[in-house]
Specification:
By secondary structure, the protein is an alpha+beta fold. It folds into two domains: about 5-85, Arc Repressor Mutant, subunit A; about 90-130, no CATH class. Helix content is about 55%, strand content about 15%. The chain is built from six helices and four strands, in the order H-H-H-E-E-H-E-H-H-E. The strands form two sheets. Strands 1-2 form a two-stranded antiparallel ribbon. Strands 3-4 form a two-stranded parallel ribbon. A hairpin with a 4-residue loop joins strand 1 (about 50) and strand 2 (about 55-60). Helix 1 packs across helix 2, helix 1 packs across helix 3 (about 30-45) and helix 1 (about 5-15) packs across helix 4 (about 60-90). The longest helix is centred in the middle third of the chain and has 29 residues, at about 60-90. The chain is elongated and about 80 Å long. The termini are far apart.
Length: about 140
Amino acid sequence: MDMIEAMKVAVAVARHNSFSSASRDLRLSAASVSRIVADLEADLGVRLFNRTTRKINLTDAGVEFVQKSTSLLEELDVMRSAVRERHETPRGQLHVSCVTAFGNEPGTRGSGIRETVPATRCLNRSWQSFGRSDW
């Protein structure tokens, strides 16, 4: 059983108070949602939902499970976003080499790269410094 999927399903069922509404929201069949919840309850050894033909209520264990699952799923989303952002945003040093005349023109030092991509550092080196030990 995929625990993250089971947590998402349990949270959706609790939010909607309905297996069928949760299944539409998750784009799963109602039978799949019911099976996932039943498997989760069997794995945990407790009932999460009290079911009748007309309504669904969370048990005490269900309330605790849904609360903790909600916070864990939110934290997982934050983590995934942070990793994606780190990968998509350029960072580090950008070495630019050019002739001295270009490097001395007003407004060319960094050419706005710092404003465009704030996590970078632009080092502008002229051709005169080529071959020096600090290159």
